[in-house]
Amino acid sequence: MRKPFVCGNWKMNKNVGETRSLCAELRTALGAFSQVELAVAPVFVSLPAAVDALKGTNIGVAGQDCHAEKEGAYTGNVSAPMLFDAGCRYVILGHSERRTYHAETDALVAKKAAAALAAGLNPIVCVGETLAERDGGKTLTVVETQVRGSLADIPEALAARVTLAYEPVWAIGTGRNATSAQAQEVHAFIRGLLRSMVHGEADKMRIQYGGSVKPDNAKELMAQPDVDGALVGGASLKADSFAAIVKAMHEARAR
Ligand code: 13P
Fold this sequence. Notes:
The chain has 255 residues and is of the alpha/beta class. 42% of the residues lie in helices and 15% in strands. Helix 1 (16-30) links the parallel strand 1 and strand 2. It binds 1,3-dihydroxyacetonephosphate.
């Protein structure tokens, strides 16, 4: 019942020209996968180019962050209504790189998620434990705190528009992905938590896995019952590897 959702998080990569080129390649490479919801998240200055280059396709555009306020004296920030106005339909929030380098807290992520929903954007809210937390047996406690805190301001009626992304910090950019069993364990745990928070809406919410997703591990990860897609970093920077991951998701659901 949940449409799988794969999003490419380009992080701080691709200038305007490179964004246009990659989007043109994605138009060709991803046209056949209408059963998978698709988005890419370029840097702010490349968003209009991506929106333009992907017009008329099934590939949406996401911001990588937004501010919780609509406008005002917040130098360097971009608001949710501004992203929507620029043609974005999604925004990634609370990524571990934002939490680490910009000291973002669950409470701030919750405010941003509420602002995103109010602006018409569908938020992708990221959670995940560090290696020390996993080794210390704290994975589920940490993830529970992040999920409860980061979704604290979401009305139940809008919850189905929120995607969770489980991204273990130790798997991001390291080439060391969570095993399919590790991912499924946490995803099923998150699903249970969501049921306690937003009841029946929980079964409509997508939970993406992120962290070193590559063409060669995507099939097994995407086959897990509570893995509803992927948030892809490095492998989303090339059309062929991103398309291979999307194909793996498509095939996992077609079976
Ligand atoms: P990598 O796929 O490069 O590990 O990055 C994952 C990620 O952080 C996506 O948001």
